[in-house]
Automatic annotation (TrEMBL):
Organism: Anaeramoeba ignava
Ranges of residues in domain KA1: 437-489
Family classification: Belongs to the protein kinase superfamily.
Cited InterPro entries: KA1/Ssp2_C, KA1_dom, Kinase-like_dom_sf, Prot_kinase_dom, Protein_kinase_ATP_BS, Ser/Thr_kinase_AS
Binding positions (ATP): K42
A cellular component annotation (GO) from this entry: cytoplasm
Keywords carried by this UniProt record: ATP-binding, Coiled coil, Kinase, Nucleotide-binding, Serine/threonine-protein kinase, Transferase
Highest taxon, organism lineage: Eukaryota
Protein name: non-specific serine/threonine protein kinase
Amino acid sequence: MAKSQPLLKIGHYEIGKTIGEGTFGKVKIGTHDKTGHQVAIKILNKNKINTHKMTAKVVREIQIMKMFIHPHVTRLLEVIQANTDIFMIMEYIPGGELFDYITKNEISEIQARKFFQQLISGVHYCHQRRVVHRDLKPENLLLNENLELKIADFGLSKIMEDGEFLATSCGSPYYASPEVVSGTIYVGPEIDVWSCGVILFALLTKKLPFNDKRTSILFQKIRKAEYIIPPFVSSSAADLISKMLNPDPIKRITISQIMEHSWFSEEIPNYILEWKSYGEILTRIEKPDPEILKLLCIYLNSNEKTALKLLKSGQNQEYILFYKLIYEKKLEEKKNENNDNKNKNENENETKSNQEEFNLKDIYSIPTILKKNQRESQSKRGVIHDKQWNLGVVLRESPEKIMSEVYRVMKLCKLEWFIENDFRLRCRISKTENDFQNSNKQIPDIEIQICLFSLVKNEKKFVLDFRKIRGEIFWFFHVCSFMINSLEIEKFLQ
């Protein structure tokens, strides 16, 4: 009797059949040897990665995906390194691509809105963590067995740095924004908004707004935003599309504004509102959740009094980070609980006669973590939930006057500088004469890039942005704060 072929294993995972294939290797289904939990194993061949000079791209994708815990972003569970390959153990999403679903199914506006709400929730989460996807399209949006959307493939994504503008043309041309196809600089979030607008158009019409086999004509249509919305699309949805597909990135609607739009907010699940309210890692947590506080103390072997003090003061980032991770896990569990309630309600509905009309809001109603009065109190304390992508300090003066004032302040601070162009320079603390010294009376090694950008076309409104090139973050903030406070120009809060 022939012996059965032994199972291939990596870590605790038994490697099964191939479910996909990419440039650097295959994607196989995996099964945990103890729990039986299925995963997707992305196998990346190191030689192929090196041959294509894509090491930085792969490392960036792994770094970015490790950051994410969100119900509508594909989860990276683990990374295992072998001699010849890298194994990315990922959440298994069996429902296929949104692209195939759009092609094969009729999608109502209600269902399109559901998909779109999930997409925007995931994109909003990424942007709050300063990650721009840059390749959003239905092929990179996966569906699970419950037809819930998951954003995948962060290979072209980018972690945003303060003051950094991008000019890389990437992603599918059909979903690319005017600034991308034109090769002009962009911040990042605005190109994801454009791509989401194209996806929404496709969900509602089963067509692309910009489509031509000739690339030059396609790009021309994109630059001018030449498209026609069919009359069967509701006026509210059409209004949102027009705001997202605005060719001017400055006037284009933002993700936060999309979430406030009447079409988007109709029948929105509570868990999406909770993720929106949660926002980015807070610098301090004024009123910690008691359950999370107890768990945090167990994880960090601490007592509640110490943990409470550190969370409120923001003095210990380890405590802030653990609080964030536990909170995100709690939100995810709430969502899963909500899905269980939904299935239960649907089953009950099948057995009852003369049932009241099915109400989507009832199914999605789950205990709200941030009650209305808590949100109001947080607002009064100045807790910011939505990351603003206006970088630097806003000034209303002529560029020449602003730069002249920058030079005066640098001289006042006894800084040395190197001019890159008329509106961009680098500066550092002088080695010979300065007022900045650390506790050991040593001169901090800090280098800062200062750039002046136009904020609004045809208006005397500019952003003076400070970007850390090297050095400790404390000294970066210290020097920048001193310089900004020394500017004798009217400043505008964002």
